[in-house]
């Protein structure tokens, strides 16, 4: 049968797409990390809900595939977009490993990912080319992450960092900043948002690249490092795209 | 007064966030490119709508600022996310140029951007680090775009291309592919989506890097170039994240 991989967006129901709601409503079973399942109590009426702790991504996906193989329609929910460091890829990998591609159809339902949610809160830092890089080395070797940070920094792309830091990896953001500082001014405009669009719990700040390692950044935070065109306008973080006065006059 | 920079998402109302609808409803004036304004006729009842052709981004933003300075609440709408190559940055730039930062507040309302919309249609190509690069050299010199393509390719990031080609720039995608081919196999899995989530008009295809320049790609198309971990599963484009069997067993 069918599995929907559903991105719930940043968390506020105002940013959950109607199409995502519909997919969940059409499902017999909803599978997700406990704190995400809690975001959508109204949608769970009459449905089986399977929720497990953070480190059991594979277990959750296996459970979803088991249910689908029994003929059920399943939604696997996650925050942000299901395809960006989300569950969608893992579902495809597991369906392939179990040789059930023909029996289980996977449909990915897009959501607002943390990069654009954080950018909206900060102003407009992603107005031009950018790289999205996770600092978690659980599944990607640190050397590869370093290579990507170097590449993005030397080519003057804005860099959006997912999973910037955890208690176990308390120096990762500092290491990333050191790499970027080889190419960018210490005064480069940066910003970070914790719990974007989650009401009262949201906090955000615009700061410099140099100051970033000392800021209170954790796994619920998205960090954006500006490029040479990024500046502060009206207290917000804005990457200018280089509209010239002539463009403006010509309109 | 206030300007909302509102991303409408890919176009299908099923992927327009309720929060974006609310911002438009709260507005006296709605400003946008004619074809985007047409997407939201139901939301325009009783409102002034200002729509102009494609090349008048700055004119549209100036008109929005004029209206806001007259005390009105204005929504500037665009497709995808307002902050990704969108109008949000330009609004900030113009408010700064006119020295009206204190009078005009800009609030960015996030939407589902083309990268994640296209990724959902193709499968799950953005499961790991990726770069978003526009091939339009209207506001960014081609040398800078080349540098970024080189950087993203050498560091094995998936690359999502916005504005990949137009009738005036018919060889840009081919030039981009030549750059990436220096670092990646000709057989690298790629995909593209035209009019993602726009009903019948949507078309998509998974192909190889080598074949990409000959595909029918235009300005309404988003192209995703896979990395060394991208493969085809069940006909979809999937970037594997490297979950090992032990992770899966441990769950």
For the largest beta-sheet of chain A, the strand count, sense and barrel status come to: 5 strands, parallel
Number of helices of chain A: 8
What does the oligomeric state look like here?
homodimer
Report the largest inter-chain contact.
A-B, 88 and 89 residues
Helix content of chain A: 25-40%
Describe what this molecule looks like in 3D.
Two copies of one chain form a homodimer. Helix content of chain A is 29%, strand content 25%. With 251 residues, the first copy, chain A, is of the alpha/beta class. In chain A, the strands form three sheets. Chain A has a five-stranded parallel beta sheet, with helices on both faces. A five-stranded mixed beta sheet of chain A has the order 7-8-11-9-10, sandwiched between helices. A three-stranded mixed beta sheet of chain A has the order 6-13-12. In chain A, a hairpin with an 8-residue loop joins strand 9 and strand 10. The N and C termini of chain A lie far apart (52 Å). Strand 7 of chain A pairs antiparallel with strand 7 of chain B, so a sheet runs across the interface.
């Amino acid at each position: 049968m069918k599995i929907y991989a559903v991105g719930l967006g940043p968390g506020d129901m105002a940013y959950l797409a109607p199409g995502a709601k519909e997919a969940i409503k059409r499902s017999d079973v909803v599978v997700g990390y406990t704190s995400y399942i809690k975001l959508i109590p109204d949608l769970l009426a009459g449905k089986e809900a399977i929720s497990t702790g953070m480190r059991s991504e594979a277990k959750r996906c296996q459970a979803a595939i088991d249910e689908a193989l029994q003929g059920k329609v399943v939604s696997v929910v996650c925050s942000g977009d299901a395809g960006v460091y989300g569950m969608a890829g893992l579902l495809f990998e597991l369906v392939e490993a179990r040789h059930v591609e023909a029996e289980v159809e996977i449909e990915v339902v897009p959501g607002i990912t943390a990069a654009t949610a954080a950018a909206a809160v900060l102003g407009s830092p992603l107005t031009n080319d950018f790289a999205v890089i996770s600092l978690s080395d659980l599944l990607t070797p640190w050397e590869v992450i370093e290579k990507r940070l170097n590449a993005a920094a030397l080519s003057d792309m804005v860099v959006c960092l997912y999973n910037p830091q955890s208690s176990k990896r308390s120096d990762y953001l500092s290491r990333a900043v050191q790499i970027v500082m080889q190419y960018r001014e210490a005064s480069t405009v940066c910003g970070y948002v914790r719990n974007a669009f989650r009401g009262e719990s949201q906090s955000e700040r615009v700061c410099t690249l140099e100051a970033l390692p000392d800021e209170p950044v954790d796994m619920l935070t998205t960090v954006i490092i500006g490029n040479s065109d990024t500046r502060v306008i009206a207290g917000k973080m804005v990457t200018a795209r280089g509209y010239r006065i002539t463009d403006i006059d010509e309109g």
